[in-house]
């Protein structure tokens, strides 16, 4: 892709915005190197990568991408037997920690592996080396400090150094507080010169204090003397310090050897982490500009649905619908200056470049873009005083280069084609240039306000007119493109609105040919009618969507009501059958008992009893069928109720309030005025809860809005422990509700009291799974990283 088009279309600003979303310097470098591609498979792959990053962040939140350093030099030094510094080892440890957290983020959140093939493949390539990570963490404290816990020998040496320091200080303290020596001293203090403990002695008494002179003041009035009494102690201290340095080097070499063993794996980790950081930067950028994945085709056509220029404020631009390549290859955009024609050109060009770079574009779903080998843009005035180029010459120089280098699969963007010279000649030249490009089937967008070109587009097949909507009342463009309509220049209306004398405007109208005036009036009427048609169409679409939504809602309610009715009917019939069967069984038992009382000789009595049993059975069966078939079901009976719900008692047609929950049979108590009555669910209907639902909805919306904006870190510096705990108590609740997996608490270093108080508080907090000091380049012990449950 030619650099001029990238510069003119401000592609570099898009890359800068993308770079700001990357976490690491390596990821930022990868963003800066991103260039558009014309390879179909490559662009498709890039687009899918971006989509995976967007979907994963929407599903499980922002990834915990920690420090990622360029470890090339460190790994090479380790591999050839060098010794890494504490700073380099810390960077290795941070890289291992980030690899582990990213692998867990992608692989351990219950996400569908098939839905994220690219990210899962990258995560599978990350190797965890927890032992080395923990060993570095145990041994290295800061960029220049090795921990006492690195080895037992280092701990012993440092304790000996502390002991020796104390012995030297005690000895010197006894000397500077002694009346014998005080008169010889310049100050009663102990200082260090050339790594030796010394005392400041007045120059005139330097011979009174036996020892070694290590330094003197600038004026020569003070000599810094190491008393003979501590020379040996200082020597022993010096030896201990040398032992400490030797032990530290031994520890660093041991850690370096461990790094060397896994250096190739760490190098692969860094490469993968850089790619992951880059992919999520693309995802964050897409979410930030509300972009979507465009469909990519190879048919030299595009259709942008509600496209927005990504560098313009989202809330102040009316999206435009732009298409080219199906029925026409050239789009000629006309309209007044400041009308938004150039923005339209840049929107098409920039969205094309973004899509070919694998970035999502700020438009609606259904946007379709194609791949171009080259994008050529002649936009803006690049006249040069040094090269004696006028505006026309500058444009023509660019056009000559474009016509020389253009290919059959190029996109050409011309701004004010033919401008800067005589209108008649300029219009003729513009038509000739467009004819040449059209003959080669090259996709072209051009802007102009020459009337000749509007007429040319109307009568020439393959070229379509378009105009950018302009609000004359406010003198501001809406950036909405109207394809199929040539634009009216509105020069007189704009001039009048800006305050030009009406007499001047009237005189100007007299100089225009009547046919031109009539043509402009026709264009104005067409544009007016088009706006009205689009307004009515939008209203029709809105009403259709509302009707569709209402229809779906009613269908859902109908389906629910039918299911409820069928369930209640089945339940009622089953209950009726059970009751009648029980009554029948009881009646049979009674008859049986009666017959057993009578003697078998009393045949007439037995016949009478048998007849009674038969009649009872027939009557029960008849009642059973009647009970089953009767439509006695309350179709509006509630499935369940809560205490306090408002209901209507159908038997007395009165409103009441539920005061007890229904039992297994559906019986419950209802307070109706001063009367308390027992009823069944079938005798009730629920009074609308619309107002109550609206309050709940507002609370839920407020909650969602709040949790969506929760930050993954909070600064409590400047507060005392109690104040900080009060702030953090609410913050950790919000973070847990928002499903954040990790947060960072910035409390500063200071005296360490706030850190100790907060970490004691974190130990017992129900949301805190574990906590630890932040990485050295993220605040060290001035911040605490919390892993939430």
From TrEMBL:
The keyword Transmembrane does not apply. Residues 714-789 form the Smr domain. PROSITE patterns: DNA_MISMATCH_REPAIR_2, SMR. Residues 519-600 form a coiled coil. CDD domains: ABC_MutS2, ATP-synt_Fo_b. GO terms for molecular function: endonuclease activity. ATP binds at residues 335-342. It comes from the Bacteria. Its EC number is 3.1.-.-, 3.6.4.-. Keywords: ATP-binding, Coiled coil, DNA-binding, Endonuclease, Hydrolase, Nuclease, Nucleotide-binding, RNA-binding, rRNA-binding. The keyword Hydrolase applies. Homodimer. Binds to stalled ribosomes, contacting rRNA. HAMAP family: MutS2. Acts as a ribosome collision sensor, splitting the ribosome into its 2 subunits. Detects stalled/collided 70S ribosomes which it binds and splits by an ATP-hydrolysis driven conformational change. Acts upstream of the ribosome quality control system (RQC), a ribosome-associated complex that mediates the extraction of incompletely synthesized nascent chains from stalled ribosomes and their subsequent degradation. Probably generates substrates for RQC. Endonuclease that is involved in the suppression of homologous recombination and thus may have a key role in the control of bacterial genetic diversity. PANTHER family: OS10G0509000 PROTEIN, OS10G0509000 PROTEIN-RELATED. Belongs to the DNA mismatch repair MutS family. MutS2 subfamily. This is Endonuclease MutS2.
């Amino acid at each position: 892709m030619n650099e001029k088009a990238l510069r003119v279309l401000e592609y570099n600003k898009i890359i800068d915005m993308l770079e700001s979303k990357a976490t690491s310097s390596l990821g930022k470098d990868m963003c800066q190197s991103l260039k558009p591609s014309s390879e179909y498979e490559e662009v498709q792959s890039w687009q899918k990568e971006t989509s995976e990053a967007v979907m994963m962040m929407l599903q499980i939140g922002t990834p915990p991408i920690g420090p990622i350093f360029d470890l090339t030099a460190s790994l090479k030094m380790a591999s050839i037997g060098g010794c890494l510094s504490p700073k380099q080892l810390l960077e290795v440890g941070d890289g291992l920690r980030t690899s582990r957290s990213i692998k867990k983020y992608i692989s351990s959140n219950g996400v569908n592996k098939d839905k994220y093939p690219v990210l899962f493949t990258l995560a599978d390539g990350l190797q965890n080396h927890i032992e080395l990570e923990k060993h570095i963490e145990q041994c290295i404290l800061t960029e220049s400090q090795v921990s006492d816990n690195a080895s037992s020998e280092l701990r012993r040496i440092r304790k000996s150094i502390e002991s020796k320091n104390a012995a030297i200080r005690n000895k010197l303290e006894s000397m500077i507080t002694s009346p014998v020596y005080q008169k010889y001293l310049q100050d009663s203090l102990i200082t260090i010169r050339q790594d030796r403990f010394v005392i400041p002695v007045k120059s005139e008494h330097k011979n009174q204090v036996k020892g070694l002179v290590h330094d003197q003041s600038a004026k020569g009035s003070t000599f810094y003397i190491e008393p003979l009494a501590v020379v040996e102690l200082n020597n022993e201290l010096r030896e201990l310090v040398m032992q400490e340095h030797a032990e530290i080097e031994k520890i660093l070499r041991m850690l370096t050897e461990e790094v060397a063993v896994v250096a190739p794996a760490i190098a692969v980790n860094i490469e993968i982490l850089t790619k992951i950081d880059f992919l999520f930067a693309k995802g964050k950028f897409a979410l930030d500009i509300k972009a979507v994945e465009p469909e990519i085709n190879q048919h030299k056509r595009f259709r942008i649905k509600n496209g927005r220029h990504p560098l313009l404020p989202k809330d102040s631009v009316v999206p435009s619908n732009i298409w080219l390549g199906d029925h026409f290859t050239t789009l000629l955009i006309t309209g007044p200056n400041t009308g938004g024609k150039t923005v339209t050109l840049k929107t098409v060009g920039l969205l094309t470049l973004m899509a070919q770079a694998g970035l999502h574009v700020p438009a609606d779903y259904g946007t379709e873009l194609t791949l171009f080998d080259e994008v050529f843009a002649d936009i803006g005035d690049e006249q040069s005083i040094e090269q004696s180029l006028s505006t026309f010459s500058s444009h023509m120089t660019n056009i000559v280069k474009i016509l020389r280098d253009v290919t059959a699969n190029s996109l050409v963007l011309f701004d004010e084609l033919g401008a800067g010279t005589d209108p008649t000649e300029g219009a003729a030249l513009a038509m000739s240039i467009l004819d040449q490009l059209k003959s080669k089937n090259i996709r072209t967008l051009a802007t102009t306000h020459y009337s000749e070109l509007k007429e040319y587009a109307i009568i020439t097949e393959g070229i379509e007119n378009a105009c950018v909507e302009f609000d004359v009342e406010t003198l501001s463009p809406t950036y909405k493109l109207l394809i199929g309509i040539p634009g009216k220049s509105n020069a007189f209306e704009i001039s009048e609105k800006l305050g030009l004398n009406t007499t001047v405007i009237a005189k100007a109208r007299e100089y225009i040919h009547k046919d031109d005036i009539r043509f402009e009036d026709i264009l104005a009427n067409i544009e007016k009618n088009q706006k009205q048609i689009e307004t009515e169409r939008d209203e029709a679409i809105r009403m259709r969507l509302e009707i569709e939504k209402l229809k779906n809602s009613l269908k859902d309610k109908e389906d629910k009501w039918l299911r409820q009715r069928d369930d209640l009917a089945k339940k009622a019939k089953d209950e009726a059958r059970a009751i009648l069967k029980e009554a029948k069984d009881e009646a049979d038992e009674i008859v049986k008992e009666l017959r057993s009382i009578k003697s078998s000789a009393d045949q007439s009595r037995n016949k009478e009893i048998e007849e009674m049993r038969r009649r009872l059975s027939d009557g029960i069966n008849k009642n059973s069928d009647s009970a089953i078939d009767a439509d006695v079901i309350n179709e509006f009976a509630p499935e369940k109720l809560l205490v306090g719900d408002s209901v209507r008692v159908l038997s007395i047609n009165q409103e009441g309030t539920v005061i007890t929950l229904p039992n297994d049979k559906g019986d419950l108590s209802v307070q109706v005025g001063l009367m308390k009555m027992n009823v069944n669910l079938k005798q009730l209907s629920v009074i609308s809860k619309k107002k109550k639902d609206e309050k709940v909805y507002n609370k839920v919306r407020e909650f969602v809005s709040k949790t969506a904006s929760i930050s993954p870190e909070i600064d409590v510096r400047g507060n005392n422990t109690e104040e900080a705990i009060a702030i953090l108590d609410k913050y950790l609740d919000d973070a847990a509700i928002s499903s954040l997996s990790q947060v960072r608490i910035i409390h500063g270093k200071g005296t360490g009291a706030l850190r100790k108080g907060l970490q004691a508080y974190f130990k017992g907090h129900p949301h805190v799974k574990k906590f630890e000091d932040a990485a050295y380049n993220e605040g060290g012990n001035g911040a605490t990283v919390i892993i939430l449950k």
